[in-house]
Amino acid sequence: MSLSNLTESQRSGVTELFRKIAPVADELGELFAAGGHQIALVGGSVRDVFLGRIGNDLDFTTDARPETVLALVRDWADSVWTVGIDFGTVGVRKDGWLLEITTYRSESYDPASRKPEVSYGDTLEGDLARRDFAINAMALRLPSREFVDPHGGLDDLHARMLRTPGPPERSFDDDPLRMLRAARFASQLGFTVDDAALAAMREMAGRIDIVSAERIREELNKLICGDDPRRGLSILVDTGLAAHVLPELPRLRLEIDEHHRHKDVYEHTLIVLEQAIDLEEDGPDRVLRWAALLHDVGKPKTRRHEQGGRVSFHHHEVVGAQLARRRLTELRFPKDVVADVSRLVELHLRFHGYGTGEWTDSAVRRYVRDAGHLLDRLHKLTRADCTTRNRRKAQALSRTYDQLEERIARLAEEEELGKIRPELDGNEIQSVLGIPPGPAVGRAYKFLLEMRLESGVVGKEAATEALLAWAEENGLTAAGE
User: Fold this and answer.
1) Cα 216 to the chain's mean position, in Å?
2) Could you read off the pLDDT of 47-57 as tens digits, one per residue?
3) Using H for helix, E for strand and C for coil, what is the string for 234-272?
4) Of 98, 103, 58, 57, whose CA–CA distance to 79 is shortest?
């Protein structure tokens, strides 16, 4: 297809692309043509041109085999890497651009295998036919700059539609992860999934079980950090995919929350996620978003029917933290992410014990100490968790939390709340009590920490006197306990 067949705005987008990436793209095209090979800009790189999102990462496809690609680019590139060469991909850095050059290919999963089988192809059209969605099956041949769109991807972009190039059953059978990618693109781009693809996803949801946890994790991460994660999560739940990759989420649809103000806890959870996103300051915060998504997953297991028709979920934050930890661990999340998300889930109800401000300063210190480096996220999660439709109640909760934050700020001016430690360290404890390292030092340290939380800064002299009195009461001597 000639560029002259594009609309004026589309031609403008392609012109802008080449203005930015020339001479890299033109040089690469001439390099491969001189070697008797084809090469084309492809996939997301072309899609993003028409969406006005040109990045520094560019994807190319070629008929040249990986070894030939290496030979062609070795003297031209600033650097080359071969991490993906077993899957036909050679990485290249050139003038600040990151290029991935992949041999025409097709890939499919054996029904009993988690690893895709890769075979090389010979034509650009064949390579485009095996792509996940038509919007990713467009290309620009180089160096001619011929636009190639055999599956109507440009029309789908205009319609904001996700559709597979061929029958969706064949596409999802070739790579079941594409079903999750549909939900992820819906979240990132705000697109809808066409009816045929949705039907195939419902029918084939169980096929996702052969995909590795790491690949699933990456798609879920991208989905939840998209512009509209509700859209993507709804697709996962409605098609049954969530029951396989995030089963805690659809289980929430069966639960009525304790206020009887929401249709179900599932809907409440999506609102909390959206409200948490509104409080973000520096782009997507995946720890905050995952905590918002999982904060109530303990409710199904803790649901109890009380007198008067009420429903309670006592200690659901504790159970929820355990479930969140298990799910994120199974998805192979980094340990720090698992720890942070589960800790936020565990702490998300703590504020509701604040009442109308009855907490002592020591209770405020404990709140800050327990939150640690997660305090700012806990503030956001707690505020986002208010989804009542009663405006007066919502405003009262907000004012109360404002007051708590003001108290935290005031105490922070007086003390280093984020670094609360006893006023005597381990070495000083040993010196004062005349005892060697051991369990007794740990007990003394814990005593001084509790005193620090209860009384604030009292000074080393007072701390020493209190320690000596405590040691006498507990029978500690220079010989130990």
Assistant:
1) 11
2) 988 887 777 89
3) HHHHHHCCHHHHCCHHHHHHHCCCCCCCCCCHHHHHHHH
4) 98
